[in-house]
């Protein structure tokens, strides 16, 4: 039993020592001042703060100051559900005796048998103000304790180099703000800008001109300068609601505060934008600045005539992706190429734009053979090396396996001429131009009061209402988006139908032109791409838009005839029937589609 008692006594002694050691490590004792720079006729507040109660508190010698208040003692005890929080503060109010730089020496206190000391603090005293400011005056509080700051990441960027702008509101611990609202948002003239949204405002601790402050980040933006020279970043303005202390107290002894509204504005900042160097600038440079990868790909390398493939020009990486044009695709004249579809997958954060952009071209070959797509060059300015980089794509060859042979009427003609004869001058081609004229004078006729005189005088006046009427009708026509789309589709259909009509009797050319007319009509009316021209897709879209099933079936039958006619004998009568049926079906769809 005695051995057990000794073991228990040793365990209790070790545990008590460990707890005391842990408590000693967690002790905090520090000194804080209200400001580190003050006028001779201002007051300085000094707080000695500890997180555990102690004994034998010894203040430093305030020999360079007059103690006008204190020590005031405040104690705070709280429990957050996990641990107990204790704070004790001794406060002194001091008046400087003279100008100069003075040091507030260390204070000491004994906590759990251990003596703790604060760090010395240096303050600067300047000459007295002519009229001391009231510390409770709202204007004084704003001037001394609240600061709206504009932070710019770089003040001398290149053209199209990203910079960040951050607006922060700094508030001294003793100042109180209950609310604020923006009254004037900054305008970034001369920049492409993107605001970076935060999920919520977070109060953080920081320093402003060496003093301890709390701050919150109000707004962040990424800017890409679009012109050189000096550009102004306009400030942010806030209307803030201040909690201003008064000399009155409530029934519980707490100080009563009033609310006051004041306007605070950040300082205006400027940046000087440098032009991109002319040395080494490629001829095909379109303004890309950053670090990029360039790629040109096709969905197919081999296909049959009238089938489609997609050629994609893509740039990916980090830089001003939304602010430059991609290089254009050049192809032989024997490949039918439609306008590109532009796609962007770009995200913007404080580092700038990142992602990829692309142009996708739909290509439909018309003849059998191998057709090369020339290499495409892309250039950009690299900010890291501050040099231009030029990238060239690889050669691409489109191999058309089946289809009509190009220029079969005269196989000896070169491909580049598109089968057209060269111009041959005829010696008599200018014979119809007269080289001699006769002039007859009419001396008795007068211009005044003649029909030409009145027409010249009144014609412009009469033309004004006609011009206004024409302009109003033109604006109404341009505003009719659906009508313009319909008219465009009708023009395309009539264009290819006219080509098909001219080719009546020539089976291959007729059905190629007829199929083009139907496809382009669908693309214009249904807003779809060539790659979506499948039977199921067409049937579904036309049915959704209110077209009768019989008309949809007629349209599908015409497309099937275009495919089958290339491999089966067709008479002129059948071609005329297919042409008439195509024109009738298009008109019926126009009347029924919604």
TrEMBL record:
Descriptive protein name: Oxygen tolerance
Entry keyword set: Membrane, Signal, Transmembrane, Transmembrane helix
TM region(s), chain numbering: 452-470
Signal peptide feature range: 1-21
Coiled-coil regions listed: none
Species this protein is from: Olleya namhaensis
Keyword Membrane attributed: yes
